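ingest -> validate -> predict -> emit
validate: passed (alphabet ok, no gaps, 174 aa)
predict: started
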Amino acid sequence: ATFPDGNFFESEAQPYCEEHYWERFGKKCAGCDQFIKGECFNALGKSWHREHFVCVECSEPFPNLSFWVKEGRPYCKPDFCRLFCQQCPKCNEYVLENGVEALGHTWHADHLTCQVCNEQLTQVFAGPEDGQPYCERHYGELFAPKCKACALPIVGAGEKSVAACGGKWHVACF
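emit:
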């Protein structure tokens, strides 16, 4: 083979003109679909020109190559949060990982706390007026009906009560 300008590419001891070399051995950029003839950047199982690996939402490059992925597509943190994350009702920051679902919201686990004592909750009681989280003790003190016999709150998972004689009673107290 002769090469008009004398330049050729070689692979496995075979000479190739530039066009055929790239067609056979080149990698295409996932961003622009052109051959990558310089520095190649690999991310998400694809090859990219560095300048084409950008957020799919805002087209900005990733600071420090820090990005978030949804359905195989890269996002910057602000766009990922805005599009896919819930805001914690206590701090209004986005919940990125290990969120806890309660009261129709996603919370940071350490922010799901009783409104009175600030104890972290594993069982949540919602205040009937404000819909805020309370521990069993404070929910009982503030909102639960009181037993006519012992005056203690009737609250708790599976606690049965009797409604009779104009009041509520613990089954054991009736």
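The radius of gyration is 31 Å.
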